[in-house]
Amino acid sequence: MKRKSLIALTLATVMTTGILAGCGSSEKTEVKNKDLKLTIYCGLMEDHMVKVVEEFKAETGIQAEAVRMSSGEILGRLRAEKENPKASVWFGGPADAFIQAKEEALLENYVSPNADKIEDKFKDKEGAWTGIYSGYLGFVSNAKLLKEKGIEAPTSWQDLLKPEFKGQISIANPGSSGTAYSALATIVQLMGEEEGLKYMKALNENVKSYEKSGTAPARLAGQGEVIVGISFLHDGIKYREEGMKDLILTSPKEGTGYEVGSVAMLNGGPDEEAAKQFIDFVLSKKGQELGETVGSYQFLTNTDAKDPALAEELKDTKLIDYDLDWAGKNRSELVEKWNKAIN
């Protein structure tokens, strides 16, 4: 009897010690993470940004904060801060800009364990950037205004040059917006540089406004400020779901480009350990599926993640063989040529 009691007491002691050791390890990790801070420059929708950062903080205890900017603004900030970086992660926005940042040695390679779940076409082979979603470029139009004017929604790039659309098109500025740069690079890849720039000059005649952010044209179409916004189609779905019921989506029959929204660690950033944990989180199934909860309807890159149901209507969009690498490496030069072409 005494022997049984002794064995029981010994087992209980071992189990208790193990549990306490486990708790101690967990508590140490939590305390360690609470000492970590992270600043993120973010190029996607603000509500998406806020949701992801909140969930990341809750899961890790890391004190994270994010600043929302367009892709061009982020690039400018990174260049200005190159000798003394203030942020450690760039989260969201088309990979074209990330490729340019890599060329300028603004990114630090990091291959997350979760990158194994992401196809090669959605990530840099050296780990400079990794895709979190993809989105298709297209036309977001106001059905009510189209009906009033007796015209059809555009279904080709050439349709946008029709005189009935004069002063009725919004697109962002490719110098500040990754979305608009994707449009410019798409046109040049479809038509060649000379004809592509001629097209952009002709399109300029019908453009009412060049916006800073790539999401603005779809919103302006929903508000009835213009008939057509050139934007990523998932942004059109978002605004439609938020109450802009007059919005309709079309895509060019010649084919269209797409973005690979990405995440990267910044070269020389002050919070490398926290940055790696954040990148791991946003590449995970859980991290990627958070977007749909706040109205982001892109296609997801993690093969375990489930695409938003509302993205289904976009799956048959005709895509070109968009050359991300070329687009990224020629970004500054192409934007400069566009500026000269339209002015």
From TrEMBL:
PANTHER family noted in UniProt: ABC TRANSPORTER SUBSTRATE-BINDING PROTEIN (PTHR30006:SF2), THIAMINE-BINDING PERIPLASMIC PROTEIN-RELATED (PTHR30006)
Gene Ontology process terms (BP): thiamine transport
CDD domains: PBP2_Fbp_like_1
GO MF term set: thiamine binding; thiamine pyrophosphate binding
Coiled coil: none
Protein name, UniProt field: Iron(III) transport system substrate-binding protein
SUPFAM superfamilies according to UniProt: Periplasmic binding protein-like II
Signal sequence annotation: 1-21
Keywords: Signal
